[in-house]
Amino acid sequence: MRWTLPAASLALLLTLTSCSATGSDIPTPPGATPAGTPSASRQDAAQVDQTLGSLRRVDDLPLYEMTYVGRYDPTDGTDAKPATPFGCSLFVAAGDRSRPLFARNFDWDANPAMVLRTDPPDGYAAISLVDMSYLGVDADPAGDRRLLNAPLLPFDGMNERGLAVGLAADDGARAARDPAKPTVGSVRILRLVLDRAATVDEAVGVFTAHNLDFDGGPPLHYLLADASGASAVVEFVDGEMRVERGRGDWQALTNVPVAGIPEQQRREDRRYGLIAQAMTESGGVADAAAAHRVLGLVQQAHTRWSVTYGLRTGEVRLTTATGGAERRYQLPMG
Q: pTM for the whole thing?
C-alpha cells in the first residue's frame, strides 16, 4: 500500500529490507565498507536522493528516521560479523483478541538506531528498527549510500497486515542445511517475513522454505505474532526447526529455549519469569502503556530501545536508552 501521511510526518520516516543467498546477512561493521558499494537498492537516481534526503536525527541515542523510496532486492547479499549477544526480551499480549500487542526490548551494543519505513512494490508496507552500526556508516551518516542497505536489517518490525516479528540470541541454536532450499542470513529472514507474510502460519512457511545461516554471528530464535492474536516461537534444536505455538493469552521469549521446555523451567530465567508473572496476572491483556511498564521490569543496562506494535491498530510506540520522550508512529493497515 502507499503511505498516506502528512508531509512533515513522512519526512521523519524510514524504510529498507533484504536477504542473503549465501553467508551472513549482516552488513559490514563501521569503517569496513567504502561508501558507494553495491547495495540492495534498485532505485533510480531521484529515488536515491529522496531516500537519503529523508534521513533525520530525532534523539541522542542517536536515533534516526528514514523513508526508503522505490525498489530493493531482498536477496542481495552482504557479509559481516555481528556483535556478542547480550540479550533481548519479547512478548505477545493477546488476552484481548480485539487489540493484540507485540512488545520487545532490544539489548545490544551502544550503537545508533533507525526507524525504517518500507513499502516495496511487490510486498507489504512495514515499519522496522535497524541497528545502524551494521551498515558501516560513519558518525555522520548523511548522504552515505550504505544507508540504502538498511532494508536488509530489520531487528524487529510489523507490516501492514499486523504481522510482527522479533529476534533474540539463543546460544544453543543450530540450523542444518537442506541443499534443496535457498540459504538466507539470520537477520535477513525477518525482511522476507515482513515483505511476504500476513499471518503466523505464512511466516512459519517463509522460515520453512529457507535455510538459516548463523555463521559468524550469534544463533537466534524468533517470536512471531499476527492481528488475530496468534503467535509462535521459531527455534532450531539439533539442526531441526521447531515451532512452539502460543496456546494461551500470551507468549514470551528471552534468551532461553522454549520449544519442549516446561513452563516452570522457562520461568527460572529472571526476565522470562517477570514477563510471565505480569502477563499471567493481567490475563494477557496489555495496552501500549502497560506493555512498556512490563518492558521496564526487564530492562537492562544495555537496552537500546523498547517498542510496542499494535497488531490491529498499526500504532508503534518507541522509547530509547536516552530516556527521552516516547515516539509514536502510525502504520496504515491494509
A: 0.87
| Interacting residues of 234 by C-beta distance below 8 A, sequence separation 6+ | 204, 207, 221, 222, 224, 241, 242, 243
CATH code linked to domain 7-79+86-321: 3.60.60.10
| pLDDT at position 266 | 97
| Per-domain residue ranges of the chain | 7-79+86-321
Instruction: Single out the residue of 176, 138, 175, 167 nearest to residue 33, CA to CA.
Output: 138
Structural element, H or E, at residue 264: helix 263-266
pLDDT band at 197 (very low <50, low <70, confident <90, very high): very high
DSSP SS3 for 131: strand
- What is the 3-class SS of 89-140, one letter each residue? EEEEECCCCCCCEEEEEEECCCCCEEEEEECCCCCCCEEEEEEHHHHCCCCC
Set of cell numbers at residue 249: 493469552
Q: CB-side exposure of 105: number of CA atoms within 13 Å?
A: 28
**pLDDT digit string, tens, across residues 240-298:** 999 999 999 999 999 999 999 999 999 999 999 999 999 999 999 999 999 999 999 99
Peptide bond into 120 cis (omega under 30): no
Strand partners, 310: 101
Which residues make Cβ contacts (< 8 Å) with residue 13, sequence separation at least 6?
3, 5, 54, 65, 66, 67, 115, 117, 127, 329
CB 252 within 8 A of CB 279: yes
Continuous segment of H or E residues that includes residue 293:
helix 288-297
C-alpha–C-alpha distance, residues 39 and 41, integer Å: 5
Amino acid at site 11:
A
Q: Which three cell numbers stand for residue 321?
A: 536508552
The CA distance from 169 to 254, in Å, is 8
